[in-house]
Amino acid sequence: xxxxxxxxxxxxxxxxxxxxxxxxxxxxxxxxxxxxxxxxxxxxxxxxxxxxxxxxxxxxxxxxxxxxxxxxxxxxxxxxxxxxxxxxxxxxxxxxxxxxxxxxxxxxxxxxxxxxxxxxxxxxxxxxxxxxxxxxxxxxxxxxxxxxxxxxxxxxxxxxxxxxxxxxxxxxxxxxxxxxxxxxxxxxxxxxxxxxxxxxxxxxxxxxxxxxxxxxxxxxxxxxxxxxxxxxxxxxxxxxxxxxxxxxxxxxxxxxxxx
Length: 259
Ligand code: CO8
What we know:
Elements: E1 9-12, E2 18-23, H1 34-48, E3 55-59, E4 64-66, H2 71-75, H3 87-93, E5 99-103, E6 106-108, H4 110-117, E7 120-124, E8 128-130, H5 144-163, E9 166-168, H6 169-175, E10 180-182, H7 187-199, H8 203-215, H9 221-235, H10 239-249
Parallel strand pairs: 2-3, 3-5, 4-6, 5-7, 6-8, 7-10
Antiparallel strand pairs: 1-2, 8-9
The protein binds octanoyl-coenzyme A.
Octanoyl-coenzyme A binds at residues 28-29, 31, 67-72, 74, 82, 85, 106, 108-110, 132-133, 136, 138, 140-142.
């Protein structure tokens, strides 16, 4: 792995198949400024197009996944600056490779939104979630009002977005925001293990499965099932489908070739 060209993140490949992106602005609790946005998108896009990488972990520090958009940077913006402000985060959400968020400490505002736009959310028992934008006279701007409402329902989404209060990891898990809670000391190992498991599967099958689940949040049941069925049938044109089924019947591990 070549050295990072980045200033606000670090990347590595902790185990084969897994790309790790670590937010690193410790003095600002990993506040998401434009540099972080550009670097996360660049790093994730590079992993996304790397045939050796099958899943990407996004993490922060022990104290903060990310404490939101950078308020100092935002304070200087006017209306016309905001039009394409968060395009990079939208593009991150569109990548095919699954994103696993490993959240410890604060995931507030844009930090909570970044965690929610990932596909799997592994949280340390220290994680704290919230959308406190209302305290700044704004509202969530990186999809938070929508993804939070989808994840936890109207009752809790309204409570959080209108009052700006935070919720601890247990409340977040009960509400459906979190995939798994793990002890803080195990967070990165667990998240990398989940990512490695995903990376061990057939890549085209993983992509189709991610697209199918995401479609549930964009369309109705009949359309969603129709979409799933087309993707399902498409698997029968792949070698990995034949290999996966043959391996099961021959009682051996599959050797997927992503074809
Ligand atoms: N932006 C910039 N700097 C920050 C941010 C942030 N979001 N959060 C923390 N920092 C900085 C602090 O200013 C402080 O810097 P310094 O040491 O230079 O004073 C340093 O990080 C450490 O923070 P604290 O001293 O405040 O640490 P505490 O442990 O006392 O508190 C908190 C931790 C509770 C997380 C507190 O820092 C906090 O409330 N942060 C702000 C949280 C917040 O409001 N986030 C939402 C931001 S808005 C947003 O994300 C909107 C996204 C979409 C916007 C759409 C606009 C068009």
